Protein backbone atom coordinates (compact mmCIF):
# COMPACT_ATOMS: atom_id res chain seq x y z
CA UNK A 1 0.00 0.00 0.00
CA UNK A 2 1.29 3.44 -0.93
CA UNK A 3 0.76 5.91 1.88
CA UNK A 4 1.98 9.17 3.37
CA UNK A 5 2.81 9.66 7.03
CA UNK A 6 1.23 12.64 8.79
CA UNK A 7 1.56 14.10 12.26
CA UNK A 8 2.48 12.06 15.35
CA UNK A 9 -0.50 11.51 17.65
CA UNK A 10 1.07 9.26 20.29
CA UNK A 11 4.42 8.05 21.52
CA UNK A 12 5.30 5.18 23.85
CA UNK A 13 8.53 3.84 25.26
CA UNK A 14 9.55 2.35 21.91
CA UNK A 15 6.92 2.97 19.21
CA UNK A 16 5.28 6.11 17.84
CA UNK A 17 1.78 6.40 16.35
CA UNK A 18 1.08 8.73 13.44
CA UNK A 19 -1.85 9.63 11.24
CA UNK A 20 -1.40 8.39 7.67
CA UNK A 21 -3.25 8.63 4.36
CA UNK A 22 -3.57 5.94 1.67
CA UNK A 23 -2.76 7.27 -1.81
CA UNK A 24 -5.27 5.18 -3.73
CA UNK A 25 -8.36 5.56 -1.52
CA UNK A 26 -7.56 8.67 0.47
CA UNK A 27 -8.46 6.75 3.65
CA UNK A 28 -7.07 8.09 6.90
CA UNK A 29 -5.63 5.47 9.23
CA UNK A 30 -3.18 5.20 12.12
CA UNK A 31 0.30 3.73 11.80
CA UNK A 32 2.36 2.46 14.73
CA UNK A 33 6.05 2.40 13.89
CA UNK A 34 9.30 1.24 15.44
CA UNK A 35 12.81 0.53 14.15
CA UNK A 36 12.80 -2.79 12.31
CA UNK A 37 15.65 -4.12 14.47
CA UNK A 38 13.50 -3.56 17.60
CA UNK A 39 10.15 -4.59 16.19
CA UNK A 40 9.68 -8.04 17.76
CA UNK A 41 6.94 -6.82 20.13
CA UNK A 42 5.14 -4.88 17.42
CA UNK A 43 5.27 -7.85 15.06
CA UNK A 44 3.76 -10.00 17.80
CA UNK A 45 1.02 -7.40 18.22
CA UNK A 46 0.43 -7.51 14.45
CA UNK A 47 -0.07 -11.28 14.54
CA UNK A 48 -2.64 -10.97 17.33
CA UNK A 49 -4.48 -7.95 15.92
CA UNK A 50 -4.69 -9.41 12.41
CA UNK A 51 -6.53 -12.45 13.79
CA UNK A 52 -9.27 -10.42 15.51
CA UNK A 53 -12.59 -9.18 14.20
CA UNK A 54 -14.71 -7.33 16.74
CA UNK A 55 -16.41 -3.90 16.67
CA UNK A 56 -14.93 -3.10 20.08
CA UNK A 57 -11.32 -3.89 19.05
CA UNK A 58 -9.33 -1.41 16.98
CA UNK A 59 -9.39 -2.51 13.35
CA UNK A 60 -6.38 -4.00 11.58
CA UNK A 61 -5.42 -2.39 8.25
CA UNK A 62 -2.16 -4.17 7.38
CA UNK A 63 1.57 -3.90 8.00
CA UNK A 64 4.80 -3.24 6.15
CA UNK A 65 8.37 -1.98 6.24
CA UNK A 66 9.35 1.51 5.12
CA UNK A 67 12.66 3.26 4.59
CA UNK A 68 12.65 6.65 6.30
CA UNK A 69 15.41 9.02 7.34
CA UNK A 70 18.10 6.52 6.48
CA UNK A 71 16.62 3.65 8.49
CA UNK A 72 14.07 0.86 8.24
CA UNK A 73 10.80 1.04 10.17
CA UNK A 74 8.28 -1.70 10.84
CA UNK A 75 4.75 -0.29 10.55
CA UNK A 76 1.44 -1.61 11.88
CA UNK A 77 -1.58 -0.03 10.14
CA UNK A 78 -4.74 0.37 12.18
CA UNK A 79 -8.13 2.03 12.19
CA UNK A 80 -7.95 5.75 13.04
CA UNK A 81 -9.95 6.87 16.09
CA UNK A 82 -10.63 10.61 15.68
CA UNK A 83 -12.01 11.02 19.21
CA UNK A 84 -8.67 10.24 20.85
CA UNK A 85 -8.44 8.12 23.96
CA UNK A 86 -10.79 7.66 26.91
CA UNK A 87 -8.24 9.64 28.96
CA UNK A 88 -8.65 12.53 26.52
CA UNK A 89 -12.43 12.34 26.86
CA UNK A 90 -12.27 12.34 30.68
CA UNK A 91 -10.09 15.44 30.54
CA UNK A 92 -12.34 17.14 27.99
CA UNK A 93 -15.31 16.45 30.27
CA UNK A 94 -13.81 18.27 33.21
CA UNK A 95 -12.23 15.33 35.02
CA UNK A 96 -15.11 12.85 35.25
CA UNK A 97 -17.94 11.38 33.21
CA UNK A 98 -21.60 11.18 34.13
CA UNK A 99 -23.19 7.90 35.17
CA UNK A 100 -25.00 7.21 31.90
CA UNK A 101 -21.81 7.63 29.90
CA UNK A 102 -19.77 5.51 32.33
CA UNK A 103 -22.26 2.66 32.09
CA UNK A 104 -22.28 2.87 28.29
CA UNK A 105 -18.50 3.01 28.02
CA UNK A 106 -18.06 0.18 30.53
CA UNK A 107 -20.42 -1.99 28.50
CA UNK A 108 -18.46 -1.28 25.30
CA UNK A 109 -15.15 -2.17 26.96
CA UNK A 110 -16.63 -5.35 28.41
CA UNK A 111 -17.90 -6.43 25.00
CA UNK A 112 -14.35 -6.10 23.70
CA UNK A 113 -12.90 -8.00 26.66
CA UNK A 114 -15.52 -10.74 26.36
CA UNK A 115 -14.50 -11.22 22.74
CA UNK A 116 -10.77 -11.28 23.51
CA UNK A 117 -11.25 -13.76 26.33
CA UNK A 118 -13.50 -15.96 24.16
CA UNK A 119 -10.64 -16.38 21.68
CA UNK A 120 -8.12 -17.05 24.46
CA UNK A 121 -6.37 -13.67 24.59
CA UNK A 122 -5.71 -11.58 27.69
CA UNK A 123 -5.09 -7.91 26.92
CA UNK A 124 -2.83 -7.34 29.96
CA UNK A 125 -2.83 -3.53 29.76
CA UNK A 126 -6.43 -2.34 30.03
CA UNK A 127 -6.50 1.35 30.98
CA UNK A 128 -8.12 4.59 29.82
CA UNK A 129 -5.24 5.63 27.49
CA UNK A 130 -5.63 2.31 25.62
CA UNK A 131 -9.36 2.76 24.99
CA UNK A 132 -9.96 4.81 21.84
CA UNK A 133 -13.05 6.65 20.62
CA UNK A 134 -13.77 5.95 16.96
CA UNK A 135 -16.70 7.11 14.84
CA UNK A 136 -18.74 4.00 15.65
CA UNK A 137 -17.84 3.45 19.29
CA UNK A 138 -15.12 2.64 21.79
CA UNK A 139 -12.21 0.45 20.70
CA UNK A 140 -9.73 -1.47 22.81
CA UNK A 141 -6.28 -0.76 21.39
CA UNK A 142 -2.58 -1.35 22.09
CA UNK A 143 -2.25 -5.11 22.30
CA UNK A 144 1.51 -4.88 22.81
CA UNK A 145 1.26 -6.70 26.16
CA UNK A 146 -1.45 -9.15 25.05
CA UNK A 147 -0.82 -12.86 25.29
CA UNK A 148 -2.55 -16.18 24.98
CA UNK A 149 -4.15 -17.44 28.15
CA UNK A 150 -1.97 -19.93 29.94
CA UNK A 151 1.22 -18.54 28.42
CA UNK A 152 3.20 -18.78 31.65
CA UNK A 153 6.52 -18.35 29.86
CA UNK A 154 5.98 -14.68 29.04
CA UNK A 155 6.71 -12.05 31.64
CA UNK A 156 3.92 -10.02 33.21
CA UNK A 157 3.43 -6.57 31.76
CA UNK A 158 1.23 -3.53 31.88
CA UNK A 159 0.94 -0.37 33.95
CA UNK A 160 1.55 -0.72 37.72
CA UNK A 161 -1.46 1.25 39.05
CA UNK A 162 -3.84 -0.89 36.94
CA UNK A 163 -2.22 -4.21 37.86
CA UNK A 164 -4.09 -6.86 39.80
CA UNK A 165 -2.40 -8.13 43.00
CA UNK A 166 -1.39 -11.45 41.42
CA UNK A 167 0.24 -9.57 38.54
CA UNK A 168 2.08 -7.22 40.90
CA UNK A 169 3.46 -10.30 42.66
CA UNK A 170 4.57 -11.76 39.32
CA UNK A 171 2.46 -14.88 39.72
CA UNK A 172 -0.02 -14.86 36.83
CA UNK A 173 -1.69 -12.56 34.34
CA UNK A 174 -4.88 -13.69 32.66
CA UNK A 175 -8.51 -12.82 32.10
CA UNK A 176 -9.13 -11.97 35.76
CA UNK A 177 -6.35 -9.38 35.65
CA UNK A 178 -8.13 -7.65 32.75
CA UNK A 179 -11.28 -7.49 34.87
CA UNK A 180 -9.34 -5.88 37.76
CA UNK A 181 -7.91 -3.32 35.33
CA UNK A 182 -11.42 -2.63 34.02
CA UNK A 183 -12.49 -1.82 37.58
CA UNK A 184 -9.56 0.59 37.87
CA UNK A 185 -10.64 2.21 34.58
CA UNK A 186 -14.20 2.67 35.84
CA UNK A 187 -12.81 4.41 38.92
CA UNK A 188 -10.81 6.69 36.62
CA UNK A 189 -13.96 7.56 34.66
CA UNK A 190 -15.68 8.41 37.95
CA UNK A 191 -12.89 10.41 39.58
CA UNK A 192 -10.64 11.62 36.77
CA UNK A 193 -7.57 9.89 38.21
CA UNK A 194 -6.17 6.39 38.07
CA UNK A 195 -6.32 4.36 41.30
CA UNK A 196 -3.28 4.86 43.51
CA UNK A 197 -2.18 7.85 41.39
CA UNK A 198 0.04 10.05 43.55
CA UNK A 199 -0.07 7.61 46.48
CA UNK A 200 3.42 6.19 45.94
CA UNK A 201 6.80 7.72 45.21
CA UNK A 202 7.87 5.10 42.68
CA UNK A 203 6.54 2.05 40.76
CA UNK A 204 8.31 -0.39 43.09
CA UNK A 205 6.42 0.95 46.10
CA UNK A 206 3.18 0.81 44.15
CA UNK A 207 3.74 -2.81 43.10
CA UNK A 208 4.64 -3.89 46.62
CA UNK A 209 1.53 -2.27 48.10
CA UNK A 210 -0.79 -3.57 45.40
CA UNK A 211 0.63 -7.08 45.61
CA UNK A 212 1.02 -7.59 49.34
CA UNK A 213 -0.99 -5.09 51.39
CA UNK A 214 -4.36 -6.78 50.90
CA UNK A 215 -5.86 -3.41 50.02
CA UNK A 216 -7.76 -2.62 46.85
CA UNK A 217 -8.38 0.69 45.13
CA UNK A 218 -10.78 2.96 46.97
CA UNK A 219 -14.28 2.71 45.52
CA UNK A 220 -15.86 6.18 45.25
CA UNK A 221 -18.51 6.60 47.95
CA UNK A 222 -20.63 8.80 45.69
CA UNK A 223 -21.23 6.00 43.20
CA UNK A 224 -24.62 4.32 43.12
CA UNK A 225 -25.12 1.15 45.14
CA UNK A 226 -25.14 -0.85 41.90
CA UNK A 227 -21.95 0.86 40.74
CA UNK A 228 -20.14 0.10 44.00
CA UNK A 229 -21.29 -3.52 43.81
CA UNK A 230 -20.08 -3.76 40.20
CA UNK A 231 -16.63 -2.53 41.21
CA UNK A 232 -16.63 -4.94 44.14
CA UNK A 233 -17.06 -7.80 41.68
CA UNK A 234 -14.14 -6.50 39.58
CA UNK A 235 -11.74 -5.80 42.44
CA UNK A 236 -11.90 -8.99 44.49
CA UNK A 237 -8.47 -9.85 45.83
CA UNK A 238 -8.69 -13.53 44.83
CA UNK A 239 -8.70 -13.71 41.00
CA UNK A 240 -10.81 -16.87 41.08
CA UNK A 241 -13.61 -14.92 42.77
CA UNK A 242 -13.73 -12.04 40.31
CA UNK A 243 -16.61 -12.02 37.91
CA UNK A 244 -15.86 -12.73 34.28
CA UNK A 245 -16.51 -10.22 31.50
CA UNK A 246 -19.52 -12.28 30.44
CA UNK A 247 -20.96 -12.22 33.97
CA UNK A 248 -20.32 -8.50 34.38
CA UNK A 249 -22.25 -7.73 31.21
CA UNK A 250 -25.34 -9.05 33.04
CA UNK A 251 -24.73 -7.00 36.19
CA UNK A 252 -27.59 -4.63 37.18
CA UNK A 253 -25.21 -1.67 36.93
CA UNK A 254 -25.26 -2.06 33.15
CA UNK A 255 -28.99 -2.73 32.80
CA UNK A 256 -30.52 -0.20 30.47
CA UNK A 257 -27.14 1.18 29.44
CA UNK A 258 -27.20 2.55 25.92
CA UNK A 259 -24.66 1.71 23.26
CA UNK A 260 -22.43 4.35 21.72
CA UNK A 261 -24.58 4.38 18.56
CA UNK A 262 -27.82 4.67 20.52
CA UNK A 263 -26.72 8.01 21.95
CA UNK A 264 -27.15 9.35 18.40
CA UNK A 265 -30.76 8.26 18.08
CA UNK A 266 -32.65 8.19 14.77
CA UNK A 267 -34.68 11.31 14.12
CA UNK A 268 -32.11 13.67 15.58
CA UNK A 269 -29.68 15.74 13.59
CA UNK A 270 -26.81 13.68 12.22
CA UNK A 271 -23.57 14.35 14.10
CA UNK A 272 -20.78 16.00 12.15
CA UNK A 273 -18.08 14.17 14.14
CA UNK A 274 -17.66 11.78 17.07
CA UNK A 275 -17.35 14.87 19.28
CA UNK A 276 -20.74 16.27 18.26
CA UNK A 277 -22.98 14.00 20.33
CA UNK A 278 -24.65 15.29 23.45
CA UNK A 279 -23.27 12.53 25.67
CA UNK A 280 -19.90 14.30 25.48
CA UNK A 281 -21.47 17.13 27.48
CA UNK A 282 -20.22 16.60 31.05
CA UNK A 283 -23.28 18.28 32.53
CA UNK A 284 -25.88 16.22 30.64
CA UNK A 285 -27.08 13.53 33.03
CA UNK A 286 -30.43 12.60 31.54
CA UNK A 287 -31.70 11.68 28.11
CA UNK A 288 -28.29 12.04 26.48
CA UNK A 289 -28.24 12.34 22.72
CA UNK A 290 -27.12 14.39 19.77
CA UNK A 291 -28.18 17.99 19.58
CA UNK A 292 -31.82 18.30 18.60
CA UNK A 293 -33.21 20.04 15.59
CA UNK A 294 -34.19 22.97 17.82
CA UNK A 295 -30.53 23.56 18.68
CA UNK A 296 -29.90 26.18 16.03
CA UNK A 297 -26.54 27.09 14.48
CA UNK A 298 -26.78 30.46 16.23
CA UNK A 299 -27.18 28.73 19.60
CA UNK A 300 -24.18 26.48 18.97
CA UNK A 301 -22.08 29.52 18.10
CA UNK A 302 -23.40 31.35 21.18
CA UNK A 303 -22.09 28.54 23.35
CA UNK A 304 -18.67 28.89 21.75
CA UNK A 305 -18.62 32.51 22.89
CA UNK A 306 -19.01 31.63 26.57
CA UNK A 307 -16.16 32.72 28.77
CA UNK A 308 -15.17 32.68 32.42
CA UNK A 309 -17.49 30.84 34.79
CA UNK A 310 -20.09 30.28 32.05
CA UNK A 311 -17.52 28.46 29.91
CA UNK A 312 -16.34 26.42 32.87
CA UNK A 313 -19.91 25.45 33.71
CA UNK A 314 -20.80 24.38 30.17
CA UNK A 315 -17.61 22.93 28.76
CA UNK A 316 -15.98 21.61 31.94
CA UNK A 317 -12.63 23.32 31.46
CA UNK A 318 -11.30 26.57 32.76
CA UNK A 319 -11.18 29.13 29.95
CA UNK A 320 -10.22 29.89 26.35
CA UNK A 321 -6.60 30.54 27.33
CA UNK A 322 -5.97 26.93 28.34
CA UNK A 323 -4.05 24.83 25.80
CA UNK A 324 -4.85 21.39 27.24
CA UNK A 325 -8.46 20.82 26.30
CA UNK A 326 -8.56 21.85 22.65
CA UNK A 327 -9.58 19.27 20.08
CA UNK A 328 -7.37 19.35 17.01
CA UNK A 329 -9.43 20.24 13.94
CA UNK A 330 -6.65 21.24 11.58
CA UNK A 331 -2.99 20.69 12.27
CA UNK A 332 -0.88 21.91 9.35
CA UNK A 333 -1.29 25.68 9.58
CA UNK A 334 1.69 27.92 9.91
CA UNK A 335 1.22 30.48 12.65
CA UNK A 336 -0.91 33.34 11.35
CA UNK A 337 -2.40 36.57 12.60
CA UNK A 338 -6.00 36.52 13.86
CA UNK A 339 -8.62 36.51 11.10
CA UNK A 340 -11.97 38.30 11.39
CA UNK A 341 -14.81 36.68 9.44
CA UNK A 342 -18.25 38.16 8.84
CA UNK A 343 -21.11 35.70 8.46
CA UNK A 344 -24.50 36.80 7.11
CA UNK A 345 -27.41 35.44 5.07
CA UNK A 346 -26.60 32.95 2.34
CA UNK A 347 -26.72 35.61 -0.39
CA UNK A 348 -23.95 37.59 1.29
CA UNK A 349 -20.43 37.51 -0.14
CA UNK A 350 -18.12 34.67 0.82
CA UNK A 351 -16.24 35.19 4.13
CA UNK A 352 -13.24 37.45 3.52
CA UNK A 353 -10.63 39.34 5.45
CA UNK A 354 -8.34 42.16 4.48
CA UNK A 355 -6.00 39.68 2.79
CA UNK A 356 -8.71 38.18 0.57
CA UNK A 357 -10.62 34.90 0.39
CA UNK A 358 -10.07 32.44 3.21
CA UNK A 359 -7.87 29.43 2.40
CA UNK A 360 -9.92 27.16 0.14
CA UNK A 361 -8.71 24.09 2.06
CA UNK A 362 -11.10 24.96 4.87
CA UNK A 363 -14.19 22.77 4.97
CA UNK A 364 -17.16 24.98 4.11
CA UNK A 365 -19.34 25.89 7.04
CA UNK A 366 -21.33 28.56 5.21
CA UNK A 367 -24.66 26.72 5.21
CA UNK A 368 -24.35 25.86 8.88
CA UNK A 369 -23.53 29.44 9.88
CA UNK A 370 -26.21 31.32 7.97
CA UNK A 371 -27.67 33.85 10.38
CA UNK A 372 -30.66 36.15 10.15
CA UNK A 373 -28.45 38.94 11.48
CA UNK A 374 -24.75 39.47 10.75
CA UNK A 375 -22.39 37.97 13.29
CA UNK A 376 -18.68 38.56 13.76
CA UNK A 377 -16.60 35.41 14.22
CA UNK A 378 -13.00 35.86 15.26
CA UNK A 379 -10.85 32.82 14.56
CA UNK A 380 -7.34 32.67 16.00
CA UNK A 381 -5.31 29.90 14.40
CA UNK A 382 -2.20 28.49 16.02
CA UNK A 383 -0.33 25.27 15.22
CA UNK A 384 -2.40 22.27 16.31
CA UNK A 385 -5.21 24.42 17.70
CA UNK A 386 -8.24 26.41 16.65
CA UNK A 387 -9.94 28.85 18.99
CA UNK A 388 -13.13 30.71 18.17
CA UNK A 389 -14.74 33.72 19.81
CA UNK A 390 -18.06 35.11 18.61
CA UNK A 391 -19.92 38.36 19.21
CA UNK A 392 -22.70 40.32 17.45
CA UNK A 393 -21.52 42.90 14.93
From TrEMBL:
* Residues binding ATP: 32
**The keyword Transmembrane helix is annotated on this UniProt entry:** no
Q: Name one GO molecular function term.
A: ATP binding
Q: Where is the Protein kinase domain?
A: 3-254
Q: Which UniProt keywords apply?
A: ATP-binding, Kinase, Nucleotide-binding, Serine/threonine-protein kinase, Transferase
* InterPro entries (alphabetical): Kinase-like_dom_sf, Plant_MAPKKK, Prot_kinase_dom, Protein_kinase_ATP_BS, Ser/Thr_kinase_AS
Its BP terms in the Gene Ontology are: signal transduction
Q: Name one Pfam family in it.
A: Pkinase
Does the record carry Cytoplasm as a key word?
Answer: no
Family indicated by similarity: Belongs to the protein kinase superfamily.
Q: Which PANTHER family match?
A: CCR4-NOT TRANSCRIPTIONAL COMPLEX SUBUNIT CAF120-RELATED (PTHR48011), PROTEIN KINASE DOMAIN-CONTAINING PROTEIN (PTHR48011:SF6)
What is the protein named?
Protein kinase domain-containing protein
| Species the sequence originates in | Ficus carica (Common fig)
Amino acid sequence: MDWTRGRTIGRGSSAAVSVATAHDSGETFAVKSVELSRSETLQREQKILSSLNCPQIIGYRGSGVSSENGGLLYNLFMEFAPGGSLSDQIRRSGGSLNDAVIRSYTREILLGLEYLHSVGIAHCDVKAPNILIAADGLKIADLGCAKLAGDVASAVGGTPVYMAPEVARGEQQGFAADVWALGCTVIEMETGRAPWAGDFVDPVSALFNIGFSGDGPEIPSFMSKQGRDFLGKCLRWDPSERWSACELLKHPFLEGSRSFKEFCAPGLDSPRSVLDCGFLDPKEDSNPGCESSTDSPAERIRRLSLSGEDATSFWGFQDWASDEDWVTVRDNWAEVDPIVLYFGPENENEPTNEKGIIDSNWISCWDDLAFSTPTKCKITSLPFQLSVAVSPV
